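Minimal example, chain plus 2-acetamido-2-deoxy-beta-D-glucopyranose.
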Amino acid sequence: MGLMKVVVVALMWVMVAGRVRGEEVTYDGRALIINGTRRILFSGSIHYPRSTPQMWPSLMAKAKQGGLDVIQTYVFWNAHEPEQGQYNFKGRFDLARFIKEAGAQGLYVSLRIGPFINSEWKYGGFPFWLRDVPGIVFRSDNEPFKFHMEKFVTVIVNLMKAERLFASQGGPIIISQIENEYQNVEAAFGEKGPSYVRWAASMAVGLQTGVPWMMCKQDDAPDPVINACNGLRCGQTFAGPNSPKKPSLWAENWTSRYQVYGEDPRPRSPTDLAFAVASFVARKHGSFVNYYMYHGGTNFGKSASSYIPTSYYDQAPLDEYGLIWLPTWGHLRELHAAIKQSRKPLLSGTYTNYSLGHLQEAHVFRTNSGRCAAFLVNFGSKARLQFLNATYNLPAQSISILQDCKKVTFNTAKVNAQYGERSANPVQYLNQNQQWRAFAEEVPSTKQNSLVAEGLLEQMSTTKDVTDYLWYTISYNHSQNDGQQTLHVDSLAHVLHVFLNGEIVGTIHGSHNGAKPVFENPIPFREGQNDISLLSVMVGIPSSGAHLEKRIAGLRHVRVQGMQNSMQDLTYNQWHYQVGLVGEKMLIYTRKGSKQARWKHLLGYTNKPLTWYKTRFDTPQGTDPVVLNLRNMGKGEVWINGQSIGRYWVSFTTPSGQPSQSLYHIPRSFLKPTSNLLVLLEEMGGDPRSITVETISVGRVCGKVSESHHPSVVYKSKKPRVRLECQQRRKITSIEFASFGTPVGNCSSYALGSCHSVASKAVVEKACLGMKKCSVPVITSRFGDDPCPGITKSLLVVANCS
Ligand SMILES: *[C@@H]1O[C@H](CO)[C@@H](O)[C@H](O)[C@H]1NC(C)=O
Ligand SMILES: *[C@@H]1O[C@H](CO)[C@@H](O)[C@H](O)[C@H]1NC(C)=O
Ligand SMILES: *[C@@H]1O[C@H](CO)[C@@H](O)[C@H](O)[C@H]1NC(C)=O
Ligand SMILES: *[C@@H]1O[C@H](CO)[C@@H](O)[C@H](O)[C@H]1NC(C)=O
Ligand SMILES: *[C@@H]1O[C@H](CO)[C@@H](O)[C@H](O)[C@H]1NC(C)=O
Ligand SMILES: CC(=O)N[C@H]1CO[C@H](CO)[C@@H](O)[C@@H]1O
């Protein structure tokens, strides 16, 4: 044996011996089984490309503190393989680093490989080149598709194996997902649907990861793949596992509904969310619940799908910036603790249920050794329930969790956790003309365009998703004898800007609900030749539905209508094309590219469509999240030091009259201390002088707890307490309001009630001032004399953190 060979053999021996031994993860009809133990697992979705590696440790620490056991993420194929065969696992796309971070913090990982993921992510995660594979039919029993899907899934599984990330290898991944909500579209594929499902399951299982696979929303998921539920109320809607040998898993319990441009946010109250989770555990014996999303984050660059804003699930337990969203995070944390306290009866007890009224149920889990857990479910209004010889008062639409089937440890409708108020605070104004430079994007005319084609080109296959923009330009000969003429344009893209001889004459857009842009306006043509330049814009490519490979976009029909019904159809004429914008080609948003542009003074360039703006700004001190407030801008995209922080569309207001989004997150890792290059492309017209650099903070916290509340099992204390904690290294610097008695209202609006202890403020100030966190017991003895004997009192405290 040569020396080299000896070294290699020795090295291999060290690697095998030193390897952390793992165990296969299995399951039975009750739960996932890890290391031989059934587990109740709370999981939260955090998507690595929607935050930065610098944010991951803190996001995961807060998830862990919030009572989560698992971090769930999709795998984003088009982020990893933007060009066929060229893989990228760097920076925000460093999947292995993300999973290792979870493992380092003692969290498991649920890996949803897909590779179709929807996720309001462009093209549902599919790389755009996949569309050009000859003969391909996405998500069907189709050889070219299956070839590429298997290849990518194998790349990911092998990468995980090489990094020893499966639990079976000692790593954190305890479950993986193949496909995603396929049943929604299965019928569109006829008999190729079911055979594709069977193929996907057996392909995945064949990769031998040593941990189970699941399919969500796939009632007939083939054994041994587990069918999991997605939705708002799996406690009511889930038909259950398709085998008694499989556990009840909830892959997506939406923490709010994703927002779309032009619609108001659809938040979900913490009490509704807690009800849904408790209901699933009680009624469907759920043992795995994943919050979609636990942290939504930011759709950087052009990663959002059609009409999806840049901010994603801001009102999840962790907000877009990674701050704790109150009181949702705290309320769920207490719920998790209450459920886990009963894990023994839940996972190994026998189950009985009975009706306690028309809309009231009891669900009881009891072990042989006599340990017992009960869930009293009230679907109706406020109710007084008799259960095992005791009386329980339940608020409307709530579930009480009873430890030992006696003591209430949690009620989903009673929020003891603190509330908080988040605000954005301007730190830099960019309101001076001389701070800005402008560069006007040229409107192409028929003379300059290089690409010429007969008829209207389909937009996505022309731009290949490299740009949102495609110019269609045509020359049109108008005679005054034709009188007033109207231009009609039908589009399957999202926005259309109409220019006549280089000047804007109209802008229209469609919407997420399926409305397509249709332009129909009289046009002030001049005598003779006119250039009609139509800028067709995509706001993300679609991410859902069957046959994504066949989707089309761009202009469909263009005609000019005159008086007396005279009509000229230009649809099939010769058109001139420009793919993308001049500024995009120059990479004008990078330091190097911006030097090549001939920038002008700002004056004369505000409120003009298709204008690039640039300035520089210094990074705000401290560690608070940084945002740009784009209040008076229209629509476009923003780059910081060459990195896109996403599209913006402030001018698309919601029914309540608010911009869909006006604050745009700049991760601190995108910034250098001074002189950051900020470049915006404004499509519609806006005034950059109104832009401010702001920081986000939770400046006020508030709690209201009644003396009759049962203290949360998260804490050791047996007394009810108001607990306050500042985030972001802040301290409580003042007590704005404190009343022990019968205060009315909540954190945004409060007042003294008829009963009030005069000692309230002094007691709270003594416990809290100068502290990062404090807790004040809600008991009369702490406040001296009883201000109103015989009446149930509560303590409401509003404090400022700075
Ligand atoms: C299983 O238990 C061993 C020993 O306690 C531990 O090192 C390992 O991390 C556990 N594995 C999992 C997946 O929890
Ligand atoms: C009890 O459970 C059974 C089986 O899961 C179900 O059919 C029935 O509706 C439940 N009854 C109540 C009162 O929850
Ligand atoms: C309920 O009370 C009755 C009468 O006091 C008693 O016989 C019974 O054992 C009690 N049941 C339970 C479950 O405590
Ligand atoms: C435009 O139309 C007028 C009248 O129809 C015609 O005389 C003229 O030659 C046309 N011009 C071009 C450039 O086609
Ligand atoms: C706070 O109380 C006010 C007045 O009663 C009410 O309008 C508001 O909706 C409440 N806010 C919350 C968050 O409960
Ligand atoms: C997609 C999906 O499952 N949506 C469901 C979410 O939950 C609500 C409430 O139960 C249902 O109405 C939706 O159909």
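Residues 22, 34-35, 167 surround 2-acetamido-2-deoxy-beta-D-glucopyranose (ligand 1) (CB under 6 Å). The radius of gyration is 30 Å.
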